[in-house]
Specification:
Mean pLDDT: 82
CATH topology: Protein Binding, DinI Protein, Chain A
CATH architecture: 2-Layer Sandwich
Low-confidence stretches: 1-19, 175-179
Number of helices: 5
CATH superfamily: Skp domain
Shape: rod-shaped
Distance between the termini: 48 Å
CATH class: Alpha Beta
Number of domains: 1
Strand order of the largest sheet: 1-2
Number of strands: 4
Radius of gyration: 30 Å
Strand content: 5-15%
């Protein structure tokens, strides 16, 4: 009798578990590029990043021009220079060239850090909106349709795109479609 009760309880539990896990999972996707392109904050980030890059490019150009000027002066006077002076000038030019290369590397790092710093609050805001939309509409998963410009989803039905809902949640994208995926 006890074995029968345990067996019955096991069967009922397994059946209940099967019903719970058999419920369909609701999956949606977003197009982050589309969301970014419709947010005014992203346009400001792009503008700030462009200004930062232009400033670094101007500094690089000034350093390069200084090197060119000193190199041309060295070339013009190299034949008449004393060995000690020539070695000093060559050392100075080598140091300037190293500084330029270091500046290029530091500038690249600076641009990447600036982009990360500017994008981080925006990405957090979009992530929060995605979570809210997912909870409101009972999505189990939300997938980014692209990663680094490469498609992750090789086929998608537009009815599962919640990008418009996310934009609506953020108060942006007046022209975006905000339909509920079925």
């Amino acid at each position: 009798m006890r074995t029968l009760v345990i067996l019955l309880f096991t069967l009922v539990s397994a059946g209940a578990f099967a019903q719970v896990t058999a419920q369909p999972q609701k999956i949606g996707y977003v197009d982050m590029d589309s969301i970014f392109s419709q947010l005014p904050q992203y346009k400001q980030v792009a503008s700030d990043l462009k200004a930062h890059t232009a400033q670094l490019e101007a500094q690089f150009k000034a350093k390069s021009q200084e090197f060119e000027t000193k190199y041309k002066a060295y070339q013009a006077a190299a034949a008449t220079m004393v060995d000690a002076v020539r070695k000093d000038k060559e050392s100075e030019l080598a140091q300037l060239q190293e500084n330029i290369q270091r500046f290029q590397q530091d500038a690249q790092t600076s641009v990447q850090k600036k982009e990360a710093d500017l994008m981080e609050p925006l990405i957090r805001k979009i992530g929060k909106a995605i979570k809210e939309v997912a909870k409101e509409h009972a999505f189990s998963f939300i997938i980014n349709a692209q990663l680094g410009g490469n498609d992750i989803l090789l086929f998608t039905d537009d009815k599962y795109d919640i990008s418009g809902l996310v934009l609506k949640k953020m108060g942006a994208g007046a022209g975006a479609t905000a339909t509920l995926p079925k």
